[in-house]
Amino acid sequence: MSDSPDEKIIICRCEDVTRADILKAIREGGFTDLESLRHHLNIGRGPCQGKTCIPLVIRILRQETGASMEEIGLPTARPPVRPIPLGILNVNEGGGE
Amino acid sequence: MSENDIGTSRIDRHPILEFHRRKELTIYYHGRPILAYEGETVASALYAAGVRTFSYSPGLDRPRGLFCAIGKCASCVMNIDGISNVRSCITPVRNGMIVEEQKGAGTFPETTVGDYETASPELEADMVIIGGGPAGLSAALEAADLGMSVLLLDENHQLGGQLIKQTHRFFGSKEHDAGVRGVTIAKSMIEKVEASDKVSVLLGTTAFGYYPGGVIAAVKENKQLVKITGKRVLLATGAAENSLAFENNDLPGVYGAGAAQTLMNVYGVKPGDEVLMVGSGNVGVIVSYQLMQAGVRIKAIVEAMPKIGAYFVHAAKIRRFGVPIYVGHSIKRAFGNGKVEGATIVKLDDKWQPVPGTEFDVKCDVICLSVGLHPSYELMAQAGCAIKFIPELSGHVAVHNRNLETTVPGIYVAGDSSGVEEASIAMMEGKVAAISAAFSLGKPVGEKRKEADQMLEHTQKQLESLRDGPFGARGRNGKRKSFELYEQLTGARV
What we know:
Number of strands of chain A: 2
Structural class of chain A: mainly alpha
CATH architecture of the largest domain in chain B: 3-Layer(bba) Sandwich
Oligomer: heterodimer
């Protein structure tokens, strides 16, 4: 473990992404919009689908890049927006698989 | 932890609330029997028994506990009866339930398709309302009164949203329940909704997707798929707690202020013994006072801004008890072995940067974050509503007009989901949305229509008056932006 405080600042709880990870991706990886940063680090793709982390990530991006909200963008909100059991999708309809 | 710890954080005496505990049940936490009461959640029962760690994180194996306690953040997911990723904070206890800490992303269940219902009902109503908080309840009552059939969904096992934990008296006009406690308003609205033969209520039902053709997919009791369509739809999905970036911000004991409020005011469980409150807005200061009413000590309130954000009357109550309020300070880190044992506070300069050498520690077992909420816009985005970032409304919202209709005709928003404001505003917005929806369906007619016209006009005026003055400026400006965006995007004038 490094001593950098940023490594102990958890931005995305579901996927364990730290502030240090995000700063590195922006500064060294050139991921300067929300969607690509999200693909790179898997931010906001856990059970909560970004409900806690996205506002924090947006704040870091704005500080680091000075980008506008329009430039930063918003990730696509896909179903399910809440954790659900996949088994419920296995409904017997139309006799299909 | 000894058996003696069980039940020690249950609140027995409270100056405002009475906790009528229902039937005693037993749940098993890693084989250990835990006392629970019918009607409470897995999280509250575990919490009362002293359990703080609910899971270990997937990459860094860090202990995690509650954060929002209203089913939004997924920080509390556990293995319940062999199923991983179940939100313990909104799952009601059942006798004999087997609960285990979740490790990482969880495990596949041993039985695959087990107990799921294979039939999926398709439900319809004139007005479908997602979210049974103040906006949803108020809309349901109004819509029913105007002759619409209503289907009201909530993922919690009781109605009322965040209103059921508001023990303070409301402001505003006398006509709109000023001087009445939120819990009392909630009780009255819930009773009316339950008594209405026009409103069907589905509790424990989570809407998880908005699909083409206007189909809302929901899951009932984690067991059954339900497909819902409404002639009109109100997405009153509320808001989620904001987090803050500081060291060990995920340590069990770091909670949203609303989570502390849920534990103590809904379930009668003390969140801890000594609390550091971060944020001195109305929520932070009101929740601090409510924590004191529950017998919890407030060690300090920290505020990054140079002055206290709350209304004077709320802040004065706290000050009278000698609680230190550190303005121009922020939290630098939380510390503790597996759970919060204290926090380091630091002074900020005029550029919001920490001033080295000004750090000091506060011993506490809970850190409450009261740093705002952001609207839950996800279902609106899936429905195709235009989503814009409006800072005065606290985040991304579905652009809507004065009648609360979004850019997708027939889909409405109201309450915190349309911009974070107060519960009294949420109730009025619910009403406006319901009346507008009824009008668009040609309901009601005759004399009743004239009354409804007047009611709409009147409620719009009420909303304007609540947003009048300096404290309402934020909401007023935010809404104006939304209305203007609506005109630009739809070419309509409302």
